[in-house]
Amino acid sequence: MPSIFGIFSNHVLIGALAGWVVAQCLKIPIHYLVEREWDWHRFHGSGGMPSSHSAMVTAAAVMSGFECGFDHPLFALAVALALIVMYDAAGVRRETGRQATVINQILRDVLINGKPISEGELKELVGHKPIEVAAGALTGVVVALGYLYFFVNG
Questions:
Q1: pLDDT tens for each residue of 12-28
Q2: What's the rounded Cα separation, in Å, for the pair 41 and 47?
């Protein structure tokens, strides 16, 4: 019977999580370079450059290819999942952010007795530009290959 502690030696999972962490960490200096302000909340926020969702699923796909073989059905499943996540990040979630921007403007413009209709603004940064998704995917590939080189095969 497999032990639950095997999770700590699951290279696919560790590589995927590493992809997410690296992408989230990269968001802070990239945000500074663009906006000229440090925003430490970028580490746990969604949206922005690079896409941590794309980095995570791409790293998982690359790791599963090296673990199981690039002709294995699990690699195909990981690639399919990665493509769905990246499409969603650049499409549906991006459009949700655009709608939040319009709704927030309406809330700023419409006042009831000197108060806005809503207590707080909707989150506008929920999706990604295609370049952010591509950068996330590239981050995932680089992290997975680095993990394989330094920790698995090293």
A1: 999 999 999 999 999 99
A2: 12
